[in-house]
Task: structure prediction
Amino acid sequence: MTDYQSVADAVAEDIKAGILRPGDRLPPQREFARRHGIANSTAARVYRELARRGLTVGEVGRGTFVRAAPAASGTPALTEPAGSRIDLELNYPVVPEQNALLAEGLDALLHPDTLGRALRPVGTSGLPALQESAADILACGNWRPDPEHILFAGNGRQALSAAVTALVPPGARLGVEELTYPVVKAVAARLGITLVPLAMDHAGLIPQALEEAHADTPLHALYVQPRLHNPLSLTMPAQRLEQLAETLLRLGIPAIEDAIWAFLHDELPPLAAHAPERTVLIDSLSKRIAPGLTLGYAVTPPALTGKITAALRSGGWTPMRFALEAAHRWQQNGTVRKLVEAKQREAAARQKIAARHLAGFTVRSDPRSYHCWWQLPRPWRADTFVAAAARHGIGVVPAAAFTTSRNHAPNAIRVGLASPPPDVLSQALSTLADLARSAPEDLVTD
Result:
């Protein structure tokens, strides 16, 4: 009689070699027994053994599937030198219920007839039903975009690149907050665009700074993050938003509003609600849903739709219809709202972890944000602290990555709170706090 362990070992080897891949469905146990010349009871033991090893997962009514590779076990050692790394740089929030919710919403989409439709090409405007569900996803406060004014891109960065390409010609000037999203810096460098840093205060971008910069040499557009600014976590109050909108309308300047993190603060209307004829709102699924299935949105004023459509097409930045169909179904069955609410709760929980470990330091953040801005204590410099953190196996982002001014960057770092599990985040922040309390010269160097 064939030993069930040896059969399970053979299947395990096929999984390790990639012959059976994550998501592949194993045959029903009776068919498996027939193929391997074993008894049905032996096949059942094989399946139980594979599940025990964490190689497969059974789903009621669907069958047994090969699992994705498990995450590396154990917590990275926070010693020097580090053998592994805790990522507080990239910032993609994931909640425990996320995979189950997304899988449930995809079941109907994976039927052969619906899958065939979802794999067809689609244009930047998608389809009317997809624009309607996108408008529901993007709605916030008392604002809901006109579905006919929504364009789609492969991801948020592509939507942003298309907006900048369409509105700012090479050699022209784009106004930005003095601390801004690093991708905008990269896009501007690639297109030969000059970034003009604009002063900020506790309420965000100062409208008077925009007016003065435009009076000096005209700006072609403004890029701004009014809600949960990256990296400062600032949110413009309603009065400041109204002042900025009035300034844009009076000067005739279009704005590119980055709303990627705004779903965490979705009770407030966007700048696009105050100046719809001047604002292109950019958003995506990467933070709100998951980074692996990307989709970008651009809510455009009618006068700018043609230019941005042309930029999306010429850049090869049109969307995947599968992502559009998936987002539509997730919105229809309530998955988007469930994930947004779960991520809002998770952000608040992680901010409490950060507040506990970084108490006593100068830290700027928001209870709804997934990052914080840490003004480092003297005598630390940001570059030295980042290097020291890396020696402890922790990645953080220096202020220089966000700075647009030619002046010295602030002596600060951005700490992303979304990526590691909460216990690992807690340990990493504890280590960073201990590091900040020490003196740079006390560190062991090579």
